[in-house]
Amino acid sequence: MSIGKIIEVKGSVVAEFTSTIILVALLACATSFGQSAAPVTELPTFQVRGTIRAFNDSAVRGAGVTFESQKISVTVSSDKSGSYEANLPVGLYTMTAKPVERYVERYRRPLFRVASPTSLTFNITLGPAGPFCDSKKPMLDQPLQAADDGVRICGGGDSFPAPSQDQDKVPFDLFIQYETRRPTDRGYTYNTGEHLPGSQSLVFVAYNLFTLQADHIVYDVQRSTLEAMGDVVVENADGTTQRADSMTFKIENGEATLLPPLQTDKNTLSTNECFAKGGLGIVSTNLYIDLKSDNNELLLSAGNRWVGQGATTQEVAIFFDNKIWPPQALPNGFDLSKSAVISFEGDKVRFFDFGKMSGGYYKRPKQN
Q: Which pLDDT value is given to residue 142?
């Protein structure tokens, strides 16, 4: 298949051509001089292809897909089925997709590396266009607060430096595109809590050749771990996909390494102290503990609250099916593996999430 493309050699004129035209032109030159064509050392190349679809699953036609390196910039267009394809010299590239339609957002992929001939698949789903806040890019070893410690509900994209540690020191970035973002003690949570009216955008994550989409993301900047929750889809570079309810990855050296589920330490609830943000202790993306309340109090999704007894009274609550249940009145169909237990113990609140097999405790601030 011959695909039209625009290639710009940095510092040279832009030309539009097809692979067939190039071959004919080279043969014509060799014949006109009556000489055999001199052997040409071909640069190793790789192929990248995929489809571009909008959030409503319609094909995006005519989008300009650009691959840019330090030496060249190559732009191809998606066809009527939303498909695109490009053949490029191996190396380091960034990637963007600019749709003609204004109702969908643009696509951005940070620096990725291809070291040998191969075939890659980057399928793209464009969310609805909307207002975006300015993205911030923290410097390596910079305090987290210096990057941006604000809450955002107008969408945006964050880039975190995660360079390779080999001799090339490739300056990879972890890129997270989101609808909402909230800070934590160690990093950020994405697409939790309040959302834009009528919006259902997923969180998009790209790191080198790794691609992921999920309902919610928690990124620990200090540990370089990324936890994805809710309809998690990992798209491998060969076009295959992995799906799960939750997955956790270590981000380093150009790789996103899948971590095994957390193993439960019998002393977890007594030794794993967690730290609240703004008086709220996170149990999951749908459940928070209000540590400043005068009562035993929990915050649920959609702004709902559960209020128990006074803060000095010991009390146990069970979170299941997005509701709080007393231990003595569990509903039919109760499943402990999909539940969380919260134990209010005066100056401490302990919790354990059986879905993630993790837990710990929060200290309550001293009351005046």
A: 43
C-alpha distances out from residue 195 to 152, 177, 180, 290, Å: 10, 14, 6, 21
- Kindly give the pairing relationship between strand 72-77 and strand 5-9: antiparallel
pLDDT score for 318: 94
Average pLDDT over residues 251-274: 72
Q: Is the model's pLDDT at 101 over the cut of 90?
A: no
Range of the domain at 191: 130-260
Tell me the backbone φ, ψ of residue 191, rounded to 5 degrees. 60, 45
Q: Which of 260, 294, 310 is the last residue of a domain?
A: 260
CA dist., res. 294 & res. 219, Å (int): 31
Side-chain half-sphere exposure of 128, counting CA atoms within 13 A: 11
Residues 285 and 197 in one domain: no
- Which residues neighbour 228 within 8 Å (Cβ) at sequence distance 6 or greater? 203, 205, 212, 214, 216, 217, 246, 247, 248, 249
Phi, psi of 115 (to 5 degrees): -100, -15
How large is the greatest C-alpha to C-alpha distance in the chain, in angstroms? 97
Task: Give residue 9's region: left, alpha or beta (phi > 0; psi -120 to 50).
Answer: beta
- b/e sequence 147-173, b meaning 16+ C-beta within 10 Å: bbeeebbebbbbbbebbbeeeeebebb
Q: Which of 207, 211, 215, 161 lies closest to 190 in space, CA to CA?
A: 215
How large is the average pLDDT for residues 216-244? 89
Assigned token pair, 75: 């732009």
* In the predicted structure, residue 80 carries a pLDDT above the cut 90: yes
Which CATH number goes with the domain that contains 142? Answer: 2.60.450
Alpha helices (H) in 86-237, listed in sequence order = 144-147
Do 278 and 256 fall into the same domain?
A: no
Instruction: Say whether both 230 and 293 belong to one domain.
Output: no
Element (H, E) at 21: helix 19-32
Residue 330, beta-bridge partner list: none
Looking at the DSSP assignment, which residues form a beta bridge with residue 164?
A: none
